[in-house]
Design a protein that fits this description.
alpha/beta; Rossmann fold; six-stranded parallel β-sheet
Length: 458
Amino acid sequence: MKVTVIGTGYVGLVTGTCLAELGNTVFCLDVDPAKIEMLNQGGIPIYEPGLKELVDRNREAGRLIFSTDVAASVAHGEIQFIAVGTPSDEDGSADLQYVVAAARNIGRHMTDFKVVVDKSTVPVGTADKVHAAIAQELATRGLTETPAFSVVSNPEFLKEGAAVEDFMRPDRIVIGTENSPGGLRAREAMDRLYAPFIRNHDRSLHMDVKSAEFTKYAANAMLATRISFMNELANLADKVGVDIENVRKGIGSDPRIGFSFLYPGTGYGGSCFPKDVQALVKTAAQFGQDLQVLRAVEEVNQKQKHVLVDKVIARYGKNLQGKTFALWGLAFKPNTDDMRAAPSRVIIAELIRHGARIQVHDPIAMPEAKRCLALDLTAQELMSLSFHEQPMQALDGVNALLIATEWKAYRSPDFLAIKQALKDAVIFDGRNLFAPELVQEAGIEYLGIGRQSEHLTT
């Protein structure tokens, strides 16, 4: 099939590339000429395991086209995926200007039937706005025969760091279509597109458009709630002398609960959970409903990003002048270079503003981190921050080590070498990456998230 994907950000590039890998001819449109030039020259604007190899293979095979030509993109695909950014507006609602602009471009250039798919994460009712934008553009063209179209909601459920696998082996494919002849035609087109995924097991969930839009927000809100819930329990565990790891195993073994997203840490970040929780709260407010649980989820998460700094201050005091700390991990999660809403940004800024110097390492995210931290910090504050190519290099001359991202490269370090490098032999483990017993056996003081039980500290 011929498919157009509008937007070559995280969702658009993964979606377009994976659909091309299945044999479709995919036209990827972006308004950023520099990004298109990079993709055509063999570069890639994001880090995602396995993605570059797929992009290269399908671009060379002619199944993956990158261009800024809007008219050509509309002419190419019967199915038009809108996968542009939906950042949070100042009031927390989703900013739909890029979605509406993409819809207008489709209406401005289309000459035959189109299935217009909202792939971006958008609030309930967005499909109606997309439909109206396309119809408005068609009306201004004065056509003797107006081409038909149908708007579909097909939300993505991709985890950064495992997006290719998630797309190629989906646990569900949510397709929301209109109750109309065009909607039936759109459903048939989407079923043809996703046929390779449902030959052995039908993973498609067909529903109305608004329910599909809501499903995406509800899923992310549920996962964010589990994270914040576990973080609150971990903070209490520190107070009452309980090892939260034992608690996690105890409750996760209940099949009604499970283990996913029950790992305490320094809070969630990235491009999805923070803005999607805010957007759902804002949507509810527009309808006169107060989502108290989700407001609390967001509040807990914001506080959790400060927990590791609070532990440092409790150990060293508020004045950190003359202290230097190493921080391992900058990306909001492993296997990505995404720094959006990353807890490391809060940790670094706070420690520097308390007078500390910070030496950091990340296997992948340092280029993006340099760009983001330059926005967070003043020129003077940036002088207290240094980047190091190897984890152990970041330990040179520091008082203690902080863990902010649970990269596999950090899981089995030489604790004796770490002890020799650290002035104070202290590790603040913001992701509970290490077994406390192993750290303490090496003569290092261990401070995790909810792991300060009497058993561990005696």
